[in-house]
Amino acid sequence: METDLIVFDEYFDATFEQVIDVVGDYLDKLVELKPEAVLEVTTTEKEGKKVWKGKIVEPKKWGTLDIYYGYIEVVPTYENSLTPMHVKLYCSHPNYISYWKGLEISFSNRLNLSDGSPGPTNEPWNLIPDRGDDRQMLELWHQGYNAPDIGERLNYSSKTIHNRLSILRGKYKEKIIPYKAKWRKSSKSGNAGN
Questions:
Q1: Using one digit for the tens of pLDDT, what is the confidence trace for 12-41?
Q2: Is pLDDT above 60 for 171?
Q3: pTM for the whole structure
Q4: Which residues have CB under 8 Å from 35's CB, separation 6+?
Q5: Angstrom distance (rounded) from CA 87 to CA 103
Q6: What whole-number distance in Å separates Cα of residue 66 and Cα of residue 184?
Q7: 37 in helix, strand or coil?
Q8: Beta-sheet strands, E only, within the chain
Q9: Are 146 and 164 in contact (CB under 8 A)?
Q10: What is the C-alpha to C-alpha distance for residues 100 and 34, in angstroms, rounded to an integer?
């Protein structure tokens, strides 16, 4: 699969089930053109997330190579949010790209594109993986505590807290790990912040 061409890479404000419905409906249409086409599904773990892969092949008679069209990859963007879903389409050969373009059009017509932000939640700290003290640190940050206060509560230096928040912000963006100045504007907490 190393030579597969990526033909589509988008985020959708849709649940896993909605994405799979589009794939299923499209496969029904593809089977009308290519009656032998089948979808082989596997799920794997990648960076702590379940990855759904649907490989489309056209099995041939014994002794001849199957035709491999490529595969679809569906990955949840956040651990505890149903949306958005990250969808990638890979084509095995340029001759088959029209099949994938049809699926791309189906996605675009039926699902709303996303900017990659999580669905609404009152607990954004639960959207990140449960590693070390990251969730507890982020929960305190959202409650309005500053880095020295968080460091004191969790037994870290304020520099360590600043660095960890910066790393998390780089990975999960500002909507989940807001900068303190912006957070203060909407916060009702009376804590002084950094």
A1: 989 899 999 999 999 999 999 899 999 999
A2: yes
A3: 0.66
A4: none
A5: 11
A6: 59
A7: coil
A8: 5-12, 38-46, 49-58, 67-76, 85-91
A9: no
A10: 14
